[in-house]
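re: ur question from yesterday

yeah so i grabbed the chain u mentioned. its 399 aa long if i counted rite. heres the sequnce exactly as i have it in my notes:
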Amino acid sequence: MFLIRKIRAVLMLLLCTLFIAGCWDRKEINDIAFVIGIAVDKEGENYRSSLQIALPGQSGASGSTGGGGGTSGDKSWFMLSNTARTLRGTTLEGQKALSRKIYYAHRRTMLIGEDLARDGVASMLDLFTRYPLNRFSALPVVTKGEAYAVMDTDAPIEKFPSEMVRELCFLNMRNPRSLKTFIDSILSDGVDPFLPVASKVENVPKDWKDAKTNIKLDGLAVFKKDKLVGMIDKAPADALILAMGEANAPEVMIKSPRGEGDIFIKLNENNSSLHPTVKDDKVTVTVQLYAKGVVVDNESNYGDLREKEILKLNDAIHKKIKEDIVEGVRLIQQKYHADILGIGRSIHQHLPKEWDKMKDRWDDIYPDVEVNVIPHVIIENVGVVNKPIGVVEEDIVHD
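ran it thru and got these structure tokens back, copy pasting raw so excuse formatting
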């Protein structure tokens, strides 16, 4: 009996080997072209896609000569750019000029040219969402001018310009807009999409030796559904991000309550909430902002920053934050008619019955919504010294 069981077990193991697939579908690294970033532009009626492809053999430290590292002056990536009538067609054209299989699963950033964004990105997004190798966590960014020009910068501090764009997004917002959140906001009622704006800049004046091109974030791109309707400069854009509760340790510059000069306050913690009310078809929304701040720089001749003067600083930063957010809201309400704060969505969440009555008319109602901003900021620390350094006691202004 024992022998029969042993024979059956051996036979079962042998049968299991028939279902072992082995490595028939393996893909060797040497046969794959890893796309780490893509720039998409519109040229007339055609798309231009520019793929930033990693060169593993050049990914060592600059100037290294052994162990598979790169050689001095060599880039760790190269660009493959093609045009076609469709976006998918650009990939097919690019594959004809590449000896390795294009592989998108490692792409983490997607640059969208300004002209394409204004024309509409819906047809482009269909490919990015349908094809399974595309990451929904990739970060889309709108560029000033052509996207391929921003992708092709030197960006010497990172190995890949596309990676620099990603790091900048995380420095700017706690939760940067991913491809998933961008598409969700396009398809959702009561909220309009927005994306960060990137541009190409010089790291030093052009006439300096060894000048390099670099990338910087330059505000917010405002959309109505899938079309870009405008770009907001960095100052009001930062205020809107703060109103969303998404700012990543922003610094606010305020005028000193008395005397001359400026004081910089860093908001280490911040969050916000929207509280809508509807009365007689008139919508009012209160933005409640909570933050904790520290004084990081005092370039004024104001006081020794003790209790009474800290209270004055609190009043000053409340006023500044309120003014900045109100200006940002004015732009998106009156100029672009885009609800990137999600005021409509907050009504849907808090007052669903009221939202059902007005959702079909929201585009007409939104520009007239009254937005009140109530900041609550507590300054917890003024630094190691109280008095402004370099200012004699006779010139210090006290309350």
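noticed a couple things. The chain has a mean pLDDT of 88. also The first strand starts at residue 32 and ends at 43.
anyway ttyl
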